[in-house]
Amino acid sequence: MKIDIIGDIHGCFTEFKELTLKLDYRWETGIPVHPENRVLGFVGDLTDRGPESLKVIELVWELVIKLKQAYYTPGNHCNKLYRFFLGNKVQVAHGLETTVAEYESLYKKDQQSIRKKFIELYEKAPLYLVFDNEKLIIAHAGIKQEFIGQTHAKVKKFVLYGDITGEKHPDGSPVRRDWAKSYHGNFSIVYGHTPVTKPRILNNTYNIDTGAVFGGKLTALRYPEMELISVSSTMPYVEEKFKQFD
């Protein structure tokens, strides 16, 4: 399988289109198609904070659900938007407010359409993706070796939020353990969730969330080549949003 895995898009549709063009996808039909039948994979967090979250949803739904030409696994922002669309009580903050504002500006029938598409996309998505006889795993915030093959609540929490301790930083963000440091499995794990200034490769894990929505880059990992391709963001740079590792 030849797959191009895209980091957290967060509504940055312009960067997504530019990145796929750089990966040699063609947009003649209005969707990215690769002449050599490569496919796209998404690590989650399609929406929130960026300017065109609904456009990203429409496109990913078409690729994954309608055409079955791409793969998607959800992130924590996807989970929150899903709960919002179900009518659950969620805090419309931390980026969700931008997606909700876009949604509320639509006509009623367009709202119903995008809501239905996203719910379908989310409900049909696996918690994490396993490819190539378990050589490649795509999980939004990563996954521990012992969780692979499981889908219980503890795994879901880890895959969506990372290895959280339950404590909070002064800014309110959760304290997370650096799970990649102690990972020593044979599977290549590709993930996002934590913005880094450049892709972080450690112990056969690849963090490709390079903070497109915070003015960094949008990054793809080409598999099986393991080649990293990035495009610069059009968004303002917000230095404090990027995680520095020891």
How is this fold's topology laid out?
Elements: E1 3-6, H1 13-22, E2 39-42, H2 53-66, E3 70-72, H3 76-85, H4 96-104, H5 108-123, E4 129-131, E5 136-138, H6 153-161, E6 164-168, E7 174-176, E8 188-191, E9 200-202, E10 205-207, E11 217-223, E12 227-232
Parallel strand pairs: 1-2, 2-3, 5-8, 8-10
Antiparallel strand pairs: 1-11, 4-5, 6-7, 9-10, 11-12
Helix pairs in contact: 2-5, 3-5
Q: What are its keywords?
A:
single chain; 246 residues; alpha/beta; 5-stranded mixed β-sheet; 6 helices; 12 strands
Walk me through what this model shows.
- It comes from Bacillus salipaludis.
- Pfam families: Metallophos.
- InterPro entries: Ap4A_hydrolase (IPR050126), Calcineurin-like_PHP (IPR004843), Metallo-depent_PP-like (IPR029052), MPP_PrpE-like (IPR041780).
- Residues 1-196 form the Calcineurin-like phosphoesterase domain.
- The chain is α/β, with parallel strands linked by helices and 246 residues long.
- It is built from six helices and twelve strands.
- Helix content is 28%, strand content 20%.
- The strands form three sheets. It has a five-stranded mixed β-sheet with strand order 3-2-1-11-12. The chain has a five-stranded mixed β-sheet with strand order 4-5-8-10-9, with no helix packed on it. Strands 6-7 form a two-stranded antiparallel ribbon.
- Strand 6 and strand 7 (174-176) form a beta hairpin.
- The radius of gyration is 17 Å and the shape is globular.
- 39% of the residues are buried.
- The model has no long low-confidence stretch (mean pLDDT 95).
